[in-house]
Amino acid sequence: MSSFQKIVGSFITTVDSVAAEVEKEKIKAIGSRNLLKSMSKQREAQQQQLQALIAEKKMQIERLRLQHESLLKEESEQNEFIEQFILHK
Fold first, then answer.
1. CA 64-66-72 angle, 5° bins
2. pLDDT tens for residues 45-62?
3. Integer Cα distance of 58 and 78 in angstroms
4. Which N-terminal residues, if any, form the signal peptide (predicted)?
């Protein structure tokens, strides 16, 4: 009976040790999963910020393109005016 109690005691100690180790690994896994979710959310937020910046830059490019076209037209008109002025002088 004494030998059986020693075996059972040793078995319980081993099971408790394994259970503690499993619990530690479980907590580490939960922490890793939460970190992964956090990183994923940060990446999505960063992607949205970059997409907003791209849209803003596209609008700025379009505005500058239109302004450039307008200035080219103005330059052409002024050159034409200068030519007409010189011819009639």
1. 100
2. 999 999 999 999 999 999
3. 30
4. none
- Tokens of residue 1, six digits: 């009976």
Classify 88 as helix, strand or coil.
Answer: coil
Instruction: Report residue 41 as tokens.
Output: 């959310």
Please report how many Cα atoms fall inside a 13 Å half-sphere around the Cα of residue 46, on the Cβ side: 6
Q: What is the DSSP letter of 32?
A: H
Question: What is the rounded distance in angstroms from the CA atom of residue 73 to the CA atom of residue 67?
Answer: 10
What whole-number distance in Å separates Cα of residue 32 and Cα of residue 30? 5
Site of tokens 């910020």: 49
Q: What backbone phi and psi angles, to 5 degrees, belong to 88? A: -90, 0
Query: Please, what is the end-to-end C-alpha distance for the chain in angstroms?
Result: 130
Q: List the structure tokens of 21.
A: 């180790």
Q: Which residue has the tokens 């020693």?
A: 6
Residue 32, pLDDT > 90, answer: yes
